[in-house]
Amino acid sequence: MIHYLFEMFSYPFMVRAMVAGGLLSLCAALLGVSLVLKRYSMIGDGLSHVGFGALAVASALNLAPLAVAVPVVILAAFLLLRLSESGKMKGDAATAVFSTGALAIGVMVISVSTGMNADLNSYLFGSILAMSKQDVALSVILSLAVLLFYGFFYEKLFAVTFDENFARATGIRTGIYNSMLAILTAVVVVLGMRMMGALLISSLIVFPALTSMRLFKSYFSVIVSSVVLAALGFGMGMCISFLYGTPAGASIVVVDLALFVVSSLFAWIRER
User: Fold this and answer.
1) pLDDT for res 116
2) Do residues 223 and 165 touch, judged by C-beta distance below 8 A?
3) Which of 24, 61, 64, 23 is nearest to 44 (CA)?
4) How far apart are CA 26 and CA 205, in angstroms?
5) Cβ-contact 160, 152 below 8 angstroms
6) What is the DSSP letter of 129?
7) What average pLDDT does this structure show over 76-82?
8) Dihedral of the CA atoms 143, 19, 200, 64 (nearest 10)?
9) 18 near 230, Cβ under 8 Å?
10) Quick one: which of 162, 252, 241 has its CA closest to 202?
């Protein structure tokens, strides 16, 4: 087993994938706790489809993919947040509208332009070969931003997550923290699409948080557990992908799903 690990880390693209993907998994797990508790868990799926639509348009216009996708996805995250807060449209309905609409636009643009090329295919289904040095650099910067965000604003995030009305009454500017969550989630989704693909990136946000909530009850314990489970799921998924030649994104999701099933079974036995 150790021989295979040394062999895996002998490939530069695997090292880049492990560094960038691992850090993005940790970021997604941290953000996922607040998003799941605030019932925004499907926002990752909606934003990933918006990101794919933006990438398709950028590819058709010969523009830099990330330069187009990041601001578009951030704008979509703000709009989803505002629609949910205004009450004019339920959060899940707004996510469905953005998700299906952006995906349809992306498919239409692809069909009338050059067709599905390798780069767009990697954004849709994910590819560890697509991880570049720039992706690694952005992942490190993002990870530091998320860690600093949680470190400095832990108590305020706790209040905003569990009782936003109470937090607002105590003087906490909930709009700012919700906006920061939306921005960080949008950036994580766009960067994570390179490895996981638009169809699977939301699993990095949802699974670690849900699994941790089966095992622990306190907010801090759930956060720590989510980070640990995200790292474990990502590492095991990448090893399975390397050993058996399976897609990296799908392998990671299958491991996360297995951890969720085991934790649910353990919680059921404990309650009995």
Assistant:
1) 56
2) no
3) 24
4) 9
5) no
6) G
7) 82
8) 80
9) no
10) 252
Q: Which carries the bigger pLDDT value, residue 255 or residue 115?
A: 255
Phi/psi of residue 62, each to 5°? 60, 40
C-alpha torsion sign, points 206, 211, 214, 216: negative
pLDDT band at 222 (very low <50, low <70, confident <90, very high): very high
The answer to whether the CB of 49 falls within 8 A of the CB of 99 is yes
Averaged pLDDT of the chain: 82
Tokens found for residue 145: 């931003």
Query: Which of 21, 45, 271 has its CA nearest to residue 143?
Result: 21
- For residue 137 the two structure tokens come to 């650099």
Q: What is the pLDDT of residues 18-72, one digit of tens each?
A: 888 888 888 889 889 988 888 777 788 888 888 888 888 887 888 877 778 888 8
Of 100, 128, 131, 126, nearest in space to 198 by CA? 126
222, 34 Cβ separation under 8 angstroms: no
User: What's this model's pTM, rounded to 2 decimal places?
Assistant: 0.86
Distances in whole angstroms, Cα of residue 165 to Cα of each of 89, 160, 169, 173: 19, 8, 6, 11
> Which two structure tokens, joined as six digits, stand for 40?
């925004």
pLDDT digits (tens, 9 = 90+) for 137-172: 877 887 788 778 877 888 888 888 877 777 888 888
- At 143, list the tokens: 């990870």
Nearest in space to 205 (alpha carbons), one of 175, 233, 240: 233
In the chain, DSSP finds a helix count (H) and a strand count (E) of 13, 0
**DSSP at 130:** G
